[in-house]
Amino acid sequence: MRVVVAGRPLVLFRNGDAIHCLADICPHRSAPLSGGRIVDGAIECPYHGWRFAGSGRCVAMPGLIGELPRALVPSYPVVEKDGLIFFALERQTAEPYTTVLSGKDTVSAIVESRVGSTLAEVAENILDATHTHFTHKGILRGLSSRRYRVTVTVTAGDDWVEARYEGEPKQEGLISRLLEGERSISVGRFRQPGIAELEFWGKDRINLATTFHLRQETTDTVHGFGILSGPRQGGLGHLKALLFKPFFRIALEQDKRILQAAEANRRIFPERRQMIGPLDVMRPHIDAILAGRWPEVADRPMEITMEL
Ligand code: FES
Ligand SMILES: [Fe+2]
């Protein structure tokens, strides 16, 4: 399978239980290895049939009699966890984080999405509570335009920022009615390199968590997987998880439509700068983290009250 990261293609392939990640280019005449097939656990180039092991080393050149010359494709660390595949373009320094409920007894569903936008826009969109009244009326929010006073606390570290919402009642949107119990607080969090996650807490546990893993695929597109999970016991249940998928898809389509329309507009009006509104609690910090800068709110947590 070919996977593109920041415009550069990689090829992922399996050899039994092992999974490998190589640059998707043959060192011979540059053919994409992803067009080939797996033979004896090695990936075979579709052009002249050179074969490469998971380490990237060439292990066969069809027709050659005698010693194999050294030929190498760059290889990258790759790990499979909770139904997702993670790879690192640099040295792998830590276990991948999948979701806050990883390892617990949960029911989960995974959805895939691709949006013509940028990572900062998509991550902000997932974590932005203020757009739901408009973009997702009826699905994530009730049909009434009623708002409630909530307190938002924003904290951060060098590579994450989170907003905690307190004071919301149980939500009236369809998804919440179906899936959530009582709500006490909810949390939205961004983490490097492209994780946007939401937690909905009941009395003393997380009732529902969604974690998106996003990647800037090309300059034009963001690709991502969203994991929805909740506790199995007295919680999500398989039927609910099944129901969840179509609703989740509707919400994602709604976001995709507005994000792509906005991105198209930015290309038409490249001189128009965006304004950070007083309720945009996450965006400046997401931008800082993505740029490798220290998010200001890490020094001084911020608290505001808004009508949500
Ligand atoms: S291009 Fe791959 S074997 Fe020739
Ligand atoms: Fe949304």
Low-confidence stretches: none
Q: Which strand order do you get reading across the main beta sheet?
A: 11-17-16-15-14-13-12-18
Main sheet summary: 8 strands, antiparallel
Quote the average pLDDT.
Answer: 91
Choose one word for the global shape.
elongated
* Assembly context of the chains: single chain
N-C termini distance: 43 Å
> Number of helical segments?
5
Evaluate the radius of gyration: 22 Å
Counting helices, strands and paired strands, the structural category is alpha+beta
Describe what is shown at a glance.
The protein has 308 residues and is of the alpha+beta class.
Written account of the structure:
The model has no long low-confidence stretch (mean pLDDT about 90). By secondary structure, this protein is of the alpha+beta class. The strands form four sheets. An eight-stranded antiparallel β-sheet has the order 11-17-16-15-14-13-12-18, covered by helices on one side. Strands 1-2-3-8 form a four-stranded antiparallel β-sheet, with no helix packed on it. The protein is about 20% helix and about 35% strand. It has helices at about 120-125, 130-135, 175-180, 235-270, 285-290; strands at about 1-5, 10-15, 20-25, 35-40, 40-45, 50, 60, 75, 80, 85, 105-115, 150-155, 160-165, 185-190, 195-200, 205-215, 220-230, 300-305. FE2/S2 (inorganic) cluster binds near residues 29, 48, 49 and 50.
Set out the fold topology.
Layout: E1 2-5, E2 8-15, E3 18-23, E4 37-39, E5 42-44, E6 51-52, E7 58-60, E8 75-76, E9 78-81, E10 84-87, E11 106-115, H1 119-127, H2 132-135, E12 149-157, E13 160-166, H3 174-179, E14 185-191, E15 195-201, E16 206-216, E17 222-231, H4 237-268, H5 283-290, E18 302-307
Antiparallel strand pairs: 1-2, 2-3, 3-8, 4-5, 5-6, 6-7, 9-10, 11-17, 12-13, 12-18, 13-14, 14-15, 15-16, 16-17
Helix pairs in contact: 1-5
This protein binds FE2/S2 (inorganic) cluster (FES) and fe (ii) ion.
FE2/S2 (inorganic) cluster binds at residues 26, 28-29, 31, 45, 47-50.
